Amino acid sequence: MDHSADAHRTDLMTITRFVLNEQSKHPESRGDFTILLSHIVLACKFVCSSVNKAGLAKLIGLAGETNVQGEEQKKLDVLSNEVFIKALISSGRTSILVSEEDEEATFVEPSLRGKYCVVFDPLDGSSNIDCGVSIGTIFGIYMVNDVNEPTLEDVLQPGKNMLAAGYCMYGSSCTFVLTTGSGVNGFTLDPSLGEFILTHPDIKIPKKGKIYSVNEGNAKNWDGPTAFYVERCKFPKDGSSPKSLRYIGSMVADVHRTLLYGGIFLYPADKKSPNGKLRVLYEVFPMSFLMEQAGGQAFTGKQRALDLIPKKLHERSPIFLGSYDDVEEIKALYAAEAK
Ligand code: AHM
Ligand code: MG
């Protein structure tokens, strides 16, 4: 007989239970958000299972190969996009979908429309997909203005108008991190149950961290404040220890570590990419929302990231996010330069 603690834990806080609890705090709620989220969670589980099989691609025929039925197998990022689009549409709760993989926004047909708009990167960290390094899905949720007449304006809104945001990391475990605007909570997939279980309640980022995270290969093209900041991470002038460098090159994994351990993640502008690399709607905004909700900050080099008003679906922005004190330092350097 199994006498382990787990065997007696019949009260596990699954993500559905968690969201239902949250919903009960809003008596006017009709459960639409819970339904939308359960479709997002299902898509994440699907992608997680595909990512886990990716290493066997040659054996079982994935990613550009032909399978036993003679069907061409899809690349993981294309497959993930399809999984999310289908899950979101079939939830019956969305009107507009913006995906990193699609040039244009998807307008859901009237009979399946609902009150939410979802912006997402179905599989972020493309350079890491084929070598088994952590990758992830990032998403943000807005409310549509008028379900009968959804327009692009509904998604070209500042990040501070997002209702919810999160990511799912496909790493050594599958981790789902969510904010609905009242803190940040982390869930880990229990493969034996097929359920995400609350493992990281009320995540708070340390006020100051010991890690900086940036692609230093771009250093020759950085502007003054970024170059100065990174130099100071390595050669501090105040007698403190140098910071450690950690850079995975997958935003979800780098941000996840930053949330849990503290520190700063930077994707600055440089001479070659004056707007940085990361996309405002489905990379910068959701991660900035999560950071602020965990007690950290997110800054673009000019302003609070969540105040940005995007003009285009795939717009980019420089981003500095992480521990409150660390982002304060970079803000001070940019303020000094602006004077
Ligand atoms: P992608 O959307 O093509 O995957 O690019 C986004 C990724 C982020 O996950 C990561 O933070 C960044 O690009 C890494 O870029 P670089 O390889 O220039 O350091
Ligand atoms: Mg991306």
Tell me what the structure shows.
By secondary structure, this protein is α+β, with helices and mostly antiparallel strands. 30% of the residues lie in helices and 21% in strands. The chain contains eight helices and 13 strands. It has helices spanning 15-24, 32-53, 57-60, 76-90, 224-234, 251-261, 280-293, 324-338; strands at residues 94-99, 106-107, 113-124, 135-143, 164-170, 174-179, 184-190, 195-200, 211-213, 244-245, 264-267, 297-299, 319-322. It has an eight-stranded mixed beta sheet with strand order 2-1-3-4-5-6-7-8, with helices on both faces. The chain has a five-stranded mixed beta sheet with strand order 10-9-11-13-12, with helices on both faces. The protein starts with 14 loop residues before the first helix and ends with a helix. The mean pLDDT is 92. Bound molecules: 2,5-anhydro-1,6-di-O-phosphono-D-mannitol and magnesium ion. Residues 100, 121, 124-127, 215, 249-251, 254, 267, 277 line the site of 2,5-anhydro-1,6-di-O-phosphono-D-mannitol (AHM). 2,5-anhydro-1,6-di-O-phosphono-D-mannitol (AHM) is lined by residues 100, 121, 124-127, 215, 249-251, 254, 267, 277.
Please describe the topology of this protein.
Layout: H1 15-24, H2 32-53, H3 57-60, H4 76-90, E1 94-99, E2 106-107, E3 113-124, E4 135-143, E5 164-170, E6 174-179, E7 184-190, E8 195-200, E9 211-213, H5 224-234, E10 244-245, H6 251-261, E11 264-267, H7 280-293, E12 297-299, E13 319-322, H8 324-338
Parallel strand pairs: 1-3, 9-10, 9-11
Antiparallel strand pairs: 1-2, 3-4, 4-5, 5-6, 6-7, 7-8, 11-13, 12-13
Helix pairs in contact: 1-2, 2-4, 5-8
This protein binds 2,5-anhydro-1,6-di-O-phosphono-D-mannitol (AHM) and magnesium ion.
